[in-house]
Structures are given as structure tokens and as C-alpha cells.
Amino acid sequence: MIICDAHLHLTRKDLPKLSEWHAAGLAGATSATARYAEWAEELELTQRTPSWVRFALGVHPWYLAEAPETALEELDTLLANHPALAVGEIGLDFADGRDDRERQLHWFEAQLALAAKYRRPAVLHLRRAWDCAPAILAKYPEVTTVLHSFNGSREVARELLKSLPNCYFSFGFALANPAATRQAGAAQVIPSERILTDSDYPFQHLPDASTSSPTGLEAVIARLAELRNDSPALLAAQLTENWRRVFGKET
Ligand SMILES: [Zn+2]
User: Fold this and answer.
1) What is the dihedral of CA 238, 239, 245, 249, to 10 degrees?
2) How far is ligand 1, taken at its centre, from the CA of residue 89, in Å?
3) Any residues with CB less than 8 A from the CB of 227 and at least 6 apart, and which?
């Protein structure tokens, strides 16, 4: 089956695995940073990977405190100098009692504004943020956004589809869990041309696996096809077309 991974985290040590994953069907992958400290290695990887691997730079809401305030200026310059770079992983996370709301909102919007400035897609991490994220995203309707490991309900999906013409919903390994009824409900109402899948490698794995691999996304696509009464092969081809539309360089 052909698979695309809209969100994972590659490091130098993963380079030998790329050909193995590619042989197993991985046709496109977008690697993102979570911490500012990872940017230099990620930029190095852009020179050492095949063209089906794309990269995003950003600071994740968990790691804002360790990033210098100059990181935003630096991101501005890097996006200007690297036309193939996307923005990510950025977002808002108000789960687990996180209380740095103002700081999160500042960084999220600043990074989103850079994605708008350079017309780049942005990969988003949103948790317990559905009360405020849609209004912020609606300020940048031109930005193509990817909601990685989407965990919103059917109602949230419908709301976002209405207000954000360029928003993609990326399902992670959680969808393969039959108990994930909220995500399953959302997966049934999103048009197939707005769906992606992501592994968040190396941080997430299938419910019945102990290690993470983007090739496990086959099970997520199979579950999506089951939920949507679709053919897995046709759906996989559609999701690949979607990944290329979002991250492909070809215009
Ligand atoms: Zn991630």
C-alpha cells in the first residue's frame, strides 16, 4: 500500500531507515522539529535525504521556554532562504494544567504569521485548544494547515471545515484503536481530499505495537477505509495526492 506521513520527527540516526520505509510503501514524509535546538540538525538533513522527504521548522508549545526570543527572526530568515521548508510543529496545548497561555498564543500566532508571509504549509499540534484555535486560524485562511494526530470530534471537524478552506485533518495511530470513537466520528464526515495520516514517529505507535514506524500507517488507512466504506487502495492513493498537494514542490 502507498503511504504518506504528514508528520514525523527524523534525526540523523534515522537516515538508514528511509530506504527500508520507502520500499515498504512510504512515498512521502514531512519531518518537523519540536524544539529550537533541533533546527540545525534538521537543516542538515534537508541536504542528506531524498526528495520525497520534506521538512518543517518550528517550536512546539511544550518547548517555548527554552527557545530564544530571536528564534522568530531566525525562522523568518530561514524560510526566506529555504523555499521548500514548511512551518511546524507549532500549536497550542492546554492539557495537563499548562498555564503559559499568553506565551503559547504569542508564539503560535507569530509562527502562523510567518507561514502566511512565505505561503508555506504549517503542521499544527492542538490539544484542548478548540475554544480559541479556530478563531486564530480564521485570521490566516490562506495558510494550508495540517492538524496532526487530529483528535477533535465530528462537531469540531464540521466547524473547522466551514471556516477553514485550507485545513487538512491528519489521523494518527490512535484512530486504529477501536475505542477511539470520537476520532472515528470525525473521520466519517471529512471529505477524503482533506484527509492525511501521520505517525509522529518516534513518539507514537499502533495500539498493538511496541515500537513506532511510519509503515504502521497502513493500519490507520485500513481503519479509515472501513469507517468510510471506501477501498483502502483508492483511499491510500487519494491521501498520497493530498500529501503532494500540501507539501509537494511541483506547481
Ligand atoms: Zn510531533
Assistant:
1) -120
2) 6
3) 184, 187, 188
Compute the distance from residue 200 Cα to the ligand 1 centre, in Å: 5
pLDDT digits (tens, 9 = 90+) for 156-189: 999 999 999 999 999 999 999 999 999 999 999 9
> Three cell numbers at 182?
470520537
Residue 86 CA, ligand 1 centroid: distance in Å: 14
Cα–Cα dist 67/71, whole Å: 7
Ligand 1: centre distance to CA 31 (Å) = 9
Measured in Å, residue 222 CA sits from the centre of ligand 1 at 22
Domain at 3-247, CATH homologous superfamily: Metal-dependent hydrolases (3.20.20.140)
User: Cell numbers at residue 68, please?
Assistant: 530564544
Going from N- to C-terminal start, the domains of the chain cover 3-247
pTM: 0.95
Rounded to the nearest whole angstrom, what is the distance from the C-alpha of residue 34 to the centroid of ligand 1?
Answer: 7
